[in-house]
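Q: Got a minute? One more chain.
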Amino acid sequence: MTPRRIIFSRKGFDSSSGGCPSPILPDGRLLSLPIPDSRSRVTFGDIDHHGIRLGDPVAQLTRHKLNAGSGAHIDPDLNARALPRQPGWRGLFGQSGAAQGHLKNQGIAPGDLFVFFGLFRPALVTDDGWRFDPAEPARHVIWGWLQIGEIAAVDEASPAVRAWADYHPHFRWQGDASNTLYLAADHLDLGEAEPELPGAGWFERHRASLQLTDRRATRPGIWALPRWFHPRDGKVPLTYHSRADRWQRETHRVVLQAVARGQEFVLDTTDYPEALPWVRCIIRSNAGADCG
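A: Always. Here it is, folded:
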């Protein structure tokens, strides 16, 4: 089912949630760190990514404000190998409160596509441990995707879903009618014959095509986007970005001053059909397939 909407979803560590960016390893690998969550049954020491247990990098990069025993809000959960899994597991993402209200108001439905981005900074791994490279700035980077196969209120999740998803942090939140799960489709479908890619996944390495931040920028929230992103016909491509002075058209790109806070920015492909081939190429090329 071709997505009508693409949701740019900000997730992972940043200056307010976690206290620092997620690291880019010296070999280019992206290590997205889930935000801390004292209610979660999953700890940073439980999570394995790229063969790295997250306890050590989290402790050292946060200067021991967090450690391997700290609870981790593993959401979105896109990496099948990150934890031991029960049969039936698939990628999933939870949302609630005002952010979920925004998604509901935008009509998010099965088939729509989450594109997850976060704040990253190159890190050094030395004999003395992990530290950020002082010569490299932080930047916003796309690190994963999830195409929606099913939407379910957490309180109404079926026994079959609970059997494999009960570890997820959104099951620890009680009495919130907005608390919602987005379960991944089995396979990615972006409107053309796709390579065999899953409905949810993550990108292994940082590449230029995944970076949203303008390489000339002095702060992460200044993005360089394709020229077709510019507002037109009285519409803007991303929700929460209606101010005209946020958008600057250049010869080969559009520069956007992204809002400082906010989690879910929705693009309607009916108004911006160029978004589908663009995001298709990003996912295919960075997941190891040809753009076609």
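A: The radius of gyration is 18 Å.
Q: Perfect, thanks.
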